[in-house]
Specification:
By secondary structure, the protein is α+β, with helices and mostly antiparallel strands. It has helices at 19-35, 57-78, 82-98, 105-114, 130-144, 175-189; strands at 9-14, 39-43, 152-157, 160-165. A 4-stranded mixed beta sheet has the order 2-1-3-4. Helix 2 runs antiparallel to helix 3, helix 2 packs across helix 5 (130-144) and helix 3 packs across helix 4. The protein is globular.
Amino acid sequence: MPDRFDVTAVTFHFDPVCPWTWRTAQWLVDATGRRGIPLFYRAFDLTGGAPPAELPDERRAAAAGSRCLLRMTEAAHADGRDALAGAVYAVYGAAVHDGGADPTPELAERALSEAGGGAYAAALHDTALDRPVARAREEAQEFSGEDAGSPVTVLTTAAGARGFFGPVVAPAPTGAAADRLWDAVAGAASVPQFFEVRARRTAKP
């Protein structure tokens, strides 16, 4: 399917712990895939880089699981293997947000293995990758502002790149509704005077 806004690439900054982000990812994978638009995955650490051990008890395991996955995402992106990062996130996100699994480092390891990413096993626990993870968040916030969270979606065209927080969806739209949302987001990105639109959330992710 051609894209009438001539989007040439999309970069998706995400934290895998966020259920709203997961719904956006489901829509975006479908929307870009049907249009043949490359989709790149980058980190957006919702902890802001805080050591998981310093977080409240109820958040530690989930934050540690996210950090593992985000390290791997940045390592894979640096190697041009964004499709692998997406595949690992697909396994992890489905397990957590659709299957009710606890988000943990152990689940990140299992998702990596199931997606065929064994070569990146060491990256999950490589703290040297925390700096690229932090830089990816900073890059996202150059588009979204520092008060925005995950996800941040950046669309690239011949005119340059525009990025926004969101879109926030629940559940992920499909069919004609998915296409209308793509046209709305891509269309908004083509209008340099546009910055933000927001609505009350009336559904759960």
